[in-house]
Amino acid sequence: MNKLSHIDEKGKAKMVDVSQKPDQEREAVARGFIQLQPETVELIRQNQIKKGDVLTVAEIAGIQGAKRTGELIPLCHPLQLWKIDVKCTLQDDGVQVECTTLCFGKTGVEMEALTGVNVALLTVYDMCKAVDKEMVMKDIRLISKTKK
């Protein structure tokens, strides 16, 4: 097993020093899903959820979440993101969320993509909780991460 980079010689958590790493273009894609009852999907489709346009609000929330990752996850470096693209797709059994993040820097952007997905999913949950008591967020995962 590889040595954990966020642990010092005494086993204490630490932020990794990335100052000597080269700046590179870095991109990450994450995806997740929230399972909904068919009635909830139909309410979203017809824009009948009382809190408003679920998919648009969730996409905006995902963007906001990705931008704040460095504030939310203690050992993440704050990054200047060039691109955050959050897409919420209504499916027959729920909403799929995909978040793509891009930056030019010394560390990856996978945590930002994952945070964007999670915040978008939580927003769908919040907006639909009055009508659906059986929602399940699942399959949240990193799809890809690249550096050039």
TrEMBL record:
Pathway: Cofactor biosynthesis; molybdopterin biosynthesis. This is cyclic pyranopterin monophosphate synthase. It catalyses: (8S)-3',8-cyclo-7,8-dihydroguanosine 5'-triphosphate = cyclic pyranopterin phosphate + diphosphate. Signal peptide: none annotated. One of its GO terms (molecular function) is cyclic pyranopterin monophosphate synthase activity. SUPFAM superfamilies: Molybdenum cofactor biosynthesis protein C, MoaC. Gene3D superfamilies: Molybdopterin cofactor biosynthesis C (MoaC) domain. The lineage of its organism: Bacteria, Pseudomonadati, Bacteroidota, Bacteroidia, Marinilabiliales. Residues 15-147 form the Molybdopterin cofactor biosynthesis C (MoaC) domain. It is an enzyme of class 4 (lyase). Residues 1-21 are annotated as: Disordered. PANTHER family: MOLYBDENUM COFACTOR BIOSYNTHESIS PROTEIN 1, MOLYBDOPTERIN COFACTOR SYNTHESIS PROTEIN A. CDD domains: MoaC_PE. Its EC number is 4.6.1.17. Keywords: Lyase, Molybdenum cofactor biosynthesis. InterPro entries: MoaC, MoaC_bact/euk, MoaC_sf, MoCo_biosynth_MoaA/MoaC, Mopterin_CF_biosynth-C_dom. One of its GO terms (biological process) is Mo-molybdopterin cofactor biosynthetic process. It comes from Aquipluma nitroreducens. It comes from the Bacteria. Catalyzes the conversion of (8S)-3',8-cyclo-7,8-dihydroguanosine 5'-triphosphate to cyclic pyranopterin monophosphate (cPMP).
